[in-house]
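2024-03-11 09:14:02 INFO worker-7 job=invfold-0412 stage=load source=structure_tokens
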């Protein structure tokens, strides 16, 4: 009888084992790449939210300080917010009437209040009636809500909420510390999230904010 060429059972099993190993290696490489991409994407998102938080807070808070009699215009409510975070409240110089200087003749802040919108720089968004007799937007508040979003809140003199804006997400904690000489506030923001493969990531960053208005 002629010899019929072919694979023995052992050879076939070896070939299948090699093929399975190759497919497993490719799958693991793809999975590792996907995990790495998911982790990197989340890290970038968290870093961006931290950067935005610190930038927004610092650009307004640095305008605060103490008034002409030395009363501090910043209040840090320790551990009273979501997740035991701090709630920061502060006043800043405002132009409450068109043509009215922000600094009075003594070189002190003429009126303390809060801009209605972030980036506001004139009386059209710093006072409801453009009249310094009453300053409707009294102070700013930065706090984390129950959805781990960082909010900028504007309140009036009676503590009533006038406006709320969300500008950062995945913020799990915010802590603030006023230096002993009351010249600097150190704000630390923590951002947390979960990747698509259910891996938890958390990162934080801090900024020292020099208070520019003293007296």
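2024-03-11 09:14:09 INFO worker-7 stage=emit residues=215
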């Amino acid at each position: 009888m002629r010899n019929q060429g072919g694979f023995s059972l052992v050879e076939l099993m070896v070939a299948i084992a090699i093929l399975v190993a190759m497919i497993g290696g490719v799958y693991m490489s793809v999975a590792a790449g996907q995990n790495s991409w998911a982790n990197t994407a989340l890290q970038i998102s968290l870093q961006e939210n931290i950067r935005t938080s610190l930038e927004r807070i610092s650009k307004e808070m640095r305008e605060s300080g103490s008034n002409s009699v030395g009363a501090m215009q910043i209040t840090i409510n320790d551990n009273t917010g979501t997740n035991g975070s701090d709630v920061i409240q502060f006043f800043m110089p405002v132009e409450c009437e068109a043509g009215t200087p922000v600094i009075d003749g003594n070189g002190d802040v003429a009126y303390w209040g809060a801009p209605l919108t972030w980036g506001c720089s004139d009386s059209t968004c710093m006072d409801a009636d453009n009249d310094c007799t009453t300053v409707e937007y009294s102070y700013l508040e930065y706090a984390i809500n129950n959805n781990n979003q960082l909010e900028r809140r504007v309140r009036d003199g009676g503590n009533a909420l006038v406006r709320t804006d969300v500008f950062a997400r995945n913020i799990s904690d915010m802590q603030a510390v006023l230096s002993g000489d009351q010249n600097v506030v150190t704000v630390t923001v923590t951002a947390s999230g979960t990747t698509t493969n259910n891996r938890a990531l958390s990162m934080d960053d801090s900024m020292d904010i020099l208070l520019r208005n003293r007296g």
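2024-03-11 09:14:09 INFO worker-7 stage=report msg="The chain has a mean pLDDT of 89."
2024-03-11 09:14:10 INFO worker-7 job finished
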